[in-house]
């Protein structure tokens, strides 16, 4: 592994979550979540399946509704006001486990759709931006193909480029490498590392511990809907405090 | 394995084996027949039985078909020519050809107009059915309904022209404002279209341009009527079906239940009761001073009927889309109309096309039901004017066979298309 | 702004939808009442109690022209159900046979069935009804063709007569003791099921597999025949016979019923055949190979592996085909079969002029039927889903 990425964290608050709770029916999925993310921070969230880590980041861009507590993104309160929700979604990009590219549109159209319709950017400018980001994720030559013609790793890189085209200030990653074949994981992680080096604020649900060591400046461990432990990666891996964290780490690193 | 055969394991081929024909028992017609017709005793019996059935059908129908009489004035004359032999009297088809196709009231000297409309239909339908054709052809598809209206019903070209103009202006306004918000585009478009129609109606009322002799709806008939009802109702019911499907999938309980009740009500009653509504009941629901002709009332009811079925097909398409598509659209900040219009519907409709085509075939066959409420479609023509005439009273076989052949050609080719499309969609790099 | 808040947004939209709906209904209703008033009409169902004044040729319950319109409608309901049940039964037989044969390894049979399916699916059922009705009325001999020393037509097997007035078949005559025969028959069917269960249990417990086919056949026939003869043949058949210009005795099935029954069966059978074929094909590929790899014989593969799974795929569309048959039976009006559409929606409507009332009652009837059928479908689907867990 290469050296850990240099940290460029400012004091400006990007996301602030206070006392947030969420239920599915009567099932308490998220319990008293408190989390402050500073601009430029790269946070990796891990934990066993069903611990609520995906739900947490999906609450941040209102894909899931929270019932109690407050979430503030970029100074905008997440409320039931649609204008606020739209504003937050414009500022927050998201990458999914299963890519969720639009199969009926070409790669280029996938990337320009939201800038044109949401940001109201002229088509030509949007296409230039899209090509810029496609170059950045190293697949500009695929621009006119359809998602189904690309490999999983390429699709996920397109998905990242698609989010970047909206010029988000925060990126959410929901297990971006879990659906990929082993040989494709690296190309996606490389793209994400590059993004981190540029100072993007990132929240990433992943089990790629190598990535966490190299990129994250904070690792959060969740279990049963609660934040159990958070620390700098060095300390987190070397010296886990909670027994649950220890058990989890021994299970995923133990072989 | 032991090591004793180590020497014989190493092997290098030095000459290539040329491909050879298989022995006769492995391929060839004998083998094919043994495999496909007589694999077992029981199966062989089945083959013999099938051959016997085919023989029965052919031996009774072929002489009748081939010995058919094509030129005669009446059934009596047919029988005279046949002199007791049993053969078809296809003369009824040649004599009543136009009536079967156009009905008995459409002015004969105007037959070229519906015929032309029919030919143009293929050009209009092509870009809808085959995605590979240039998209520019869709412009003609858009013009076609107005053109066909003008050709079939006649009258001044101004009426369809103003209607078309209204639609075009409405569409342009919609396109201009839809990026701002869907509601603005929609209301703007509808308002603009209305303005054009009202203004056009005022300015050009009584004006006359390129006037064709007008034909009233009552004079339409024959197979033309079946085609018109089928095509009009299916094309009208697709947008309504989309709206109903979206309504049924929405999370607004009241909207959802309105759609559910409508769809389930329509699907629960036979088409014939809806046609009864059209013929005896619907006029009660229009303002007393206005009369709506039967053709239009039938179109309204059949459209309601097919839109309920199409809604269910589209709902299936919507349900087949992965949830991730909705989430990705949301996370990019698209609002509901944008997500539906740009992401969800294009995909859902594509999956639904084979289903919609099947509904269309079923509906086309069901247009024959209008003969029950005294419209003279092809079945109505056969049962009414033709069989009731003294000349042709008694020529059931030939007439029903003709109608069957027409329906078979249309329905079979559409369903072949639908299967082709299904295969293509299955292998499409989507 | 109400539209910008997720909490009120949906309520706002729904309120708008509701207002539009109420406005539309109000508009239609006000037109309706204005029209009714103008024509001096009202909405009333009292005509149902009035004398119908017309005859119905085929009835399952006593009915005469002096009966009420309500009873005429009821006769129609029973006739609809009669033809629907008969056609469902026969369409299933046609469909299953054709569907299975379409997968036969016999090329000729496969193609023949494909031709059947394509021809019947692609021609309107209404034309089929008319064609078969025409065969039944115009192409069949009149009853008097059966008379004389060298009749132009003869009865099939001495018991079935196809005439242009309908088909005459033997009718059963029941004498005291027939209940016992019937009870024995039912008991032996239960016996077959019990025997098969027992043999399965024996297989599970001891690994011994008893023969199943021949014992089943024996249980099916022997006890019933034994009791039948012991009781002195309490069930006999009354054969139709020529008497004067017409047939007497037996059971007459009118040409309209036959035409409707047969046309609906053979038309819907083509659709069912496709469902059956699709159902079997959906399962058979991988599952059949897996079962064969385990060493099961073809018959067992079908019974134990393919059919149980295929039925889940086949039965839901089959049930909706039954609904289609019921709805299509309304075409009876074309051939003069007195179903509910022909009595209530046809003659009663025309005689009383109560169009709105008649059409509403008609729709209500069909809606009830289709609700019942979709209820059955839902029950079946949830039962299947439970077993999947």
From TrEMBL, chain A:
Residues 15-249 form the ABC transporter domain. GO terms for molecular function: ABC-type amino acid transporter activity; ATP binding; ATP hydrolysis activity. CDD domains: ABC_HisP_GlnQ. Pfam families: ABC_tran. Belongs to the ABC transporter superfamily. This is L-glutamine ABC transporter ATP-binding protein /L-glutamate ABC transporter ATP-binding protein /L-aspartate ABC transporter ATP-binding protein /L-asparagine ABC transporter ATP-binding protein. It comes from the Bacteria. InterPro entries: AAA+_ATPase, ABC_ATPase_HisP-typ, ABC_transporter-like_ATP-bd, ABC_transporter-like_CS, MetN_ABC_transporter-like, P-loop_NTPase. Keywords: ATP-binding, Nucleotide-binding, Transport.
